[in-house]
Write the structure tokens for this entry.
Amino acid sequence: MRLAVLIAVVTFALAAPAVAAAPKALKATLTAATHTPIADNTTHWPYQVKVTDLKGKPLAGKISIAIVDPLGTAHPVQFGANTKYVTNWPFRGTFKDWVLWPPDSAVGVVLKFRATVVTAKGKAVLIYPVKPRA
């Protein structure tokens, strides 16, 4: 009876570090031109999202882009030259686009530009703080 208890404790002790030490399966980055884009409805604000595995190989997945206001409400972002929204959009490796910031849109207020990427190797949520200026 003592042997059974000892085996259970050893098994649990060996299993615990494997769960805690599980490595990330993907690397995701969000880059943009500036944290203070011009809000004039004509200036393009380019951004880029890259997703790779740990060896640097591009991963396929779906991306959603949103602007989160100070109240926590997420507003989907349209493609730069389009009326379609970047929501669950399929891509591979790199996604590039641009945003127009309207002049009446929260000039001087810190917003969160959020990219959510879902791949077969996992999910990444990337936040880029933005404070539009006139």
Remarks:
- The domain at 24-130 is CATH 2.60.40.1940 (Immunoglobulin-like).
- The chain is about 15% helix and 40% strand.
- Residues 1-23 have pLDDT under 50 and may be disordered.
